[in-house]
UniProtKB/TrEMBL annotation:
Pfam families: Kinesin. The keyword Nucleotide-binding applies. GO terms for cellular component: cytoskeleton. Its main location: cytoplasm. One of its GO terms (molecular function) is ATP binding. This is KIF27 isoform 6. Belongs to the TRAFAC class myosin-kinesin ATPase superfamily. Kinesin family. GO terms for biological process: microtubule-based movement. InterPro entries: Kinesin-like_fam, Kinesin_motor_dom, Kinesin_motor_dom_sf, P-loop_NTPase.
């Protein structure tokens, strides 16, 4: 059986101000010096990477994404999948705060990767690069391309192409 090189990271965000004001409690804890978290009192889960509530955007990017970007520049495909319930911190981790006002340390995965990819392209003028990007939102059973304003959720479907590759296609 072929090994699939998938890594799973979990990032735990701190309580929001409104959550602290309403006396909400933290329900996920990091086990120190491990890649494990505890949910509730005794449910332990292990991941490839664990980032606690004080982790920085820089830590997440350098640990999880930078190796993918370096492989991407060498010609490999890369996918980053952010999963979590509404309000769990996906948008902050992926993009940062409000994109027009993000300070350097708060930049998320996408702005950092774009900067690194195009910096590398500019440093290698003799190499012909072809960059293709998708930014797909999966909400309930619907898919939406966030880079294509004209595509409705009903127009995207996940299919397998003739080579057995999984692709997201317009119908």
């Amino acid at each position: 059986m072929e090994e699939i090189p998938v890594k799973v990271a979990v990032r735990i965000r701190p309580l929001l101000c409104k959550e602290a004001l309403h006396n909400h409690q933290v329900c996920v804890r990091v086990i120190p010096n491990s890649q494990q978290v505890i949910i509730g009192r005794d449910r332990v889960f292990t991941f490839d990477f664990v980032f606690g509530k004080n982790s920085t955007q820089d830590e997440v990017y350098n640990t999880c994404i930078k190796p993918l970007v370096l492989s991407l520049i060498e010609g490999y495909n890369a996918t980053v999948f952010a999963y979590g319930q509404t309000g769990s911190g996906k948008t902050y981790t992926i993009g940062g705060g409000h994109i027009a006002s993000v300070v350097e340390g708060q930049k998320g995965i996408i702005p950092r990767a774009i900067q690194e990819i195009f910096q590398s392209i500019s440093e290698h003028p003799s190499i012909d690069f072809n960059v293709k990007v998708s930014y797909i939102e999966v909400y309930k059973e619907d898919l939406r391309d966030l880079l294509e304003l004209e595509t409705s959720m009903k127009d995207l479907h996940i299919r397998e192409d003739e080579k057995g590759n999984t692709v997201c296609a317009c119908c």
